[in-house]
Design brief:
149 residues; alpha+beta; Nuclear Transport Factor 2, Chain: A; 34% helix
Length: 149
């Protein structure tokens, strides 16, 4: 009887570690994730000032087989977007985050649900970003995006 109780106690103790679906995130992980969220919020709000705060000046974006810089991103997503009924809601599901000193690599699924010119739609991507930390702020240096069907 005592042996069964000990086995049950050991089994319970070993299984409690499995109850955590995700590892808790560190302060840097939270800051990295928030930088990515801020980038997409800036796109939704057509806010070039906030967009620039989330990126390095020399950001490289790899979008649908094209190479974009910060000016291209602003032109294609903000300046050319003149629809008065524009809305964009982003859903980001983080897959993995790795941080080493002042560099972070993050992979996530991104979905944008949008309305523009009276039409609704959505686009889904699998994206990877590289961020660098400068002056205590994380900024996106590279963003690679693959559209998902």
């Amino acid at each position: 009887m005592l042996v069964q109780k000990i086995r049950l106690l050991l089994l319970f103790a070993s299984c409690t570690g499995l109850l955590h679906a995700q590892r808790p995130t560190s302060g840097d992980q939270n800051a990295v994730h928030q930088t990515i969220i801020n980038l997409f919020d800036a796109l939704s709000n057509r806010d070039t000032v906030s967009l620039k705060l989330s990126c390095t000046a020399d950001i490289a974006l790899y979008e649908n087989g094209q190479v974009w810089n910060l000016d291209t991103l602003i032109n294609k997503t903000i300046r050319l977007n003149t629809a008065t009924d524009f809305t964009r809601i982003n859903t980001i599901n983080f897959i993995s985050t790795t941080i080493s000193k002042k560099t972070a690599w993050v992979t996530y699924h991104n979905q944008a649900d949008f309305t523009m010119h009276g039409k609704q739609g959505n686009v889904k991507w699998l994206e990877t970003v590289v961020l660098v930390k400068a002056k205590k702020r994380w900024k996106i240096k590279v963003l690679h995006s693959t559209v998902m069907n």
